[in-house]
Structures are given as C-alpha cells and as structure tokens.
C-alpha cells in the first residue's frame, strides 16, 4: 500500500499509479463483457431504471468500458465519456462533491482496503451518493456501487468496476452516505453484510448539533433515560430517540456512550 500522504487523495492516487510500472496481467478481468451485454439487452424494456456500468483503469485514468445506458442518466454518449476519461469525470463532478470524495471518502477507502487481503478486494462493495452535472448542466444525484476487481500485491486498487443509478427522486445531496459491504465470493456487486457506514456533509455546518440536541446531550451526560429526557424537554420519547440516532450518524459513533464522549471531547457540551 502506498505510503505517500500526498497520493492518498483520489486524484493524487491515480497520478501516483501513472508513474508506476504495472504488469498488464494485473489489468485483465474475465466475464465483464457478458455483464455489459445483459445491461444493453434490458435497456429497451427498463430504460427508466437501467444503471450505467463502467470499468475504470486507475493506472491510466481511462474508462475501459462504459455502458450505453449512461446517456439516459447524463445525456452523454458512452463513447464520448470513454474518450474523455477521468478528465471528463472531474469536469462534470459537482465541485463540492468532488472535493469531498477526493479529500475524505477516497482516503478512507484506502484505509479500509489496507485491512483487507488484496485477493479479497473484489468481495467488498463501496457505495455512496454524489452529484454530477448532466449534459444540460443540471445536477443529477447518483448512487454509485463499485468494487475493486483488481489490486496489486501491496493492496493498491488498480481496476474499479461500478454501477451508477439515478436517485434524484429518492435523496438529495446532503448528507453523503458511504457504505462498505462484504459480499459472497462471486456475487459481483451483490448485497452483503455491512462492515462500515459513515456519514459526510457537503456543508460542514449541517453536521453540527441543534440547540435542542445540545440540551438533550447534557441530560444524556447526566445519565437520564430517554423517558426522563422527554419529560424534561416536553417532547415524546420517540423524538428523543430520533434526535439521538441523528446525532450518532452525524459524528459516526455506535452508541450513546460514544456520543456523549464525542460531545465532551469536541467541547460541544
């Protein structure tokens, strides 16, 4: 795995790989052509929901495969996107979303991959929502699920195979949810066991706690139960539970004890 901190951003990482000598054998993947053919077959019947598929070579920044269905999502022909490669992707990425993925999400992915044997990388699916500018210039909210089908012996990911779906009608740009799942071997991009989930915010102020949530935290720190806090604040116990769950997502902790510890450590209370 790379050791240079400057190379751990998404863009820095691929620039790093371009300077390395990669064995072509490491970049061969069997079976993906069949998946692309199935995608084209269902295009006519399910044009409203068929995802856009791609295979991205991290060593060159080129798309080795792009399904024709991407035109339904972005307005661009697949050949145009394939020729434009990573530079076109960077150009069409919503600025704030690119900054978040480049500087926070992708480095987190590298840290996760460090803990996984390279041979098992294809068995982990990474999902997150982001925004891309369509050909018309309008932002489109997308859900991307990808796995690293090829990595080198040091665990550096080389090839990313992904599925991108339009989720404009299901979610907005904030927050960005990054989910990592372990799937059964051979079930490419299937649904598996969640091993890590983290919430990010495009606008950092959206990650802060409200005045009411800070009040709730103070009572939690005093050891009050959800029912007791509800009585103190004249709200329902269900509302207290929802506030607690939302705060846990905002600071990526697993339970109430970690939440209070986080609030104290960051001088929120």
Automatic annotation (TrEMBL):
Domain HTH luxR-type: 202-267
Annotated keywords: DNA-binding, Transcription, Transcription regulation
GO MF annotations in UniProt: DNA binding
InterPro entries documented for this protein: Sig_transdc_resp-reg_C-effctor (IPR016032), Tscrpt_reg_LuxR_C (IPR000792), WH-like_DNA-bd_sf (IPR036388)
Glycoprotein keyword on record: no
Pfam families the record matches: GerE
Gene Ontology terms describing biological process: regulation of DNA-templated transcription
Gene3D superfamilies membership: PAS domain (3.30.450.20), Winged helix-like DNA-binding domain superfamily/Winged helix DNA-binding domain (1.10.10.10)
Transmembrane listed as a keyword: no
Top-rank lineage group of the source organism: Bacteria
PANTHER family assigned to the protein according to its UniProt record, in alphabetical order: DNA-BINDING TRANSCRIPTIONAL ACTIVATOR DEVR_DOSR (PTHR44688)
Name of the protein described by the UniProt record: DNA-binding response regulator
Organism per entry: Chitinophaga silvatica
């Amino acid at each position: 795995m790379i050791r240079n901190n400057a190379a751990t951003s998404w863009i820095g990482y691929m620039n790093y790989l371009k300077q390395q000598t990669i064995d072509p054998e490491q970049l061969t993947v069997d079976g993906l052509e069949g998946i692309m053919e199935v995608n084209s077959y269902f295009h006519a019947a399910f044009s409203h929901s068929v995802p856009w598929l791609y295979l991205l070579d991290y060593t060159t920044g080129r798309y080795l495969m792009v399904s024709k269905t991407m035109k339904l999502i972005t307005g661009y022909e697949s050949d145009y996107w394939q020729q434009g490669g990573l530079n076109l992707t960077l150009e069409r990425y919503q600025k704030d979303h690119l900054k978040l993925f480049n500087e926070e999400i992708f480095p987190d992915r590298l840290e996760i991959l460090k803990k996984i044997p390279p041979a098992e990388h294809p068995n982990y699916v990474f999902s997150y929502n982001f925004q891309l500018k369509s050909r018309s210039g309008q932002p489109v909210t997308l859900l991307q699920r990808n796995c690293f089908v090829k990595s080198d012996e040091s665990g550096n990911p080389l090839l990313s195979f992904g599925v991108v779906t339009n989720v404009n009608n299901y979610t907005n740009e904030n927050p960005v949810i990054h989910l990592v799942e372990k799937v059964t071997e051979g079930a490419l991009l299937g649904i598996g066991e969640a091993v890590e989930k983290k919430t990010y915010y495009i606008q950092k102020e959206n990650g802060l706690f409200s005045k009411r949530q800070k009040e709730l935290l103070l009572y939690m720190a005093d050891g009050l139960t959800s029912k007791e806090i509800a009585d103190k604040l004249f709200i329902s116990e269900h509302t207290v539970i929802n506030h607690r769950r939302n705060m846990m997502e905002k600071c990526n902790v697993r339970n109430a004890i970690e939440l209070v510890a986080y609030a104290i450590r960051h001088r929120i209370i």
